[in-house]
Amino acid sequence: MTRRRDQIIGLLCDHPELSAAELAERLQVSVQTIRTDLRDLDEALLVQRRNGLVRLRQQSENVGYTPRVSVARNEKRRIALAVKELVPDGARIALGTGTTVENCAQFLAVRKRLFVATNNLHAVVALQQAPEAQVSLAGGVVRLRDLDLIGAASTGFFAGYRVEQAIFSCGGISDSGEVLDYNLEEVAARTAIADCANQKVLVVDSTKFGRDLPCRNRVIWDYDVVVTGQDLSEPLRAACEDAGCKVIKVAVDG
């Protein structure tokens, strides 16, 4: 069921609107099954149903943290597994916010002697049992919805560190490769995290592609590594290759 609902979100990223019948045909299940899925996704504020059609819910703020945990769950774990292979024991890293980064923190908890700077309380909890880890948490005002810290205090926090790798996500990726977020505070937080690292690792699941969000800063090939389950278009793959950006494509199914 979780996988099917991930597939619904993925289809709605590719198509502005679809009917329950169209989704049922594409996913080879009954219309009643799709309607049950859509009701639950609507209640989780992930989709919007109107006049027999369904679309992704677009808003100025991301949906709540708990509903996002279940979206693309398997893909996020595969992204996290790939990120773990990039980070050696004893590394100094910065971790951003979001559910994909939380998954990365869970897998990185097996690494020894990590130094971690983060503004993500979920990541701190995930690293609680990491052997000999040292974790530094940003100050400022906590966003209770997401249990993270953004704003001026958080941005200044990252400016005080120099780490080997920064691992962070974003609100969306446009068709032309622009990196998007819901508000300027999130853009500033992502920029500060990226700027404190030698290697910049963008982790982004396939549901983020094709989103239309209001705030933009940089393009995906500005980063050193992109880890995703999305098949990039040929223009985006070429741009990444020309810029020296390594794209790690993880399997989505299975």
Brief synopsis:
The protein has about 250 residues and is an alpha/beta fold. It has helices at about 1-15, 20-25, 30-45, 65-70, 75-85, 100-110, 120-125, 150-160, 185-195, 235-245; strands spanning about 20, 45-50, 55, 90-95, 115-120, 135, 140-145, 150, 165-170, 170-175, 180, 195-205, 215-220, 225-230, 245-250.
Description:
- The mean pLDDT is 90.
- The chain has 2 domains: 2-57, Winged helix-like DNA-binding domain superfamily/Winged helix DNA-binding domain (Arc Repressor Mutant, subunit A, Orthogonal Bundle), CATH 1.10.10.10; 68-249, Rossmann fold (3-Layer(aba) Sandwich).
- Strand 7 and strand 8 (148-149) form a beta hairpin.
- Helix 2 (20-27) packs across helix 3 (31-43), helix 5 (73-86) packs across helix 6 and helix 8 (152-159) runs parallel beside helix 9 (184-195).
- The strands form 4 sheets. A 7-stranded parallel beta sheet has the order 6-5-4-9-12-14-15, sandwiched between helices.
- With 254 residues, the chain is of the alpha/beta class.
- The protein is built from 10 helices and 15 strands.
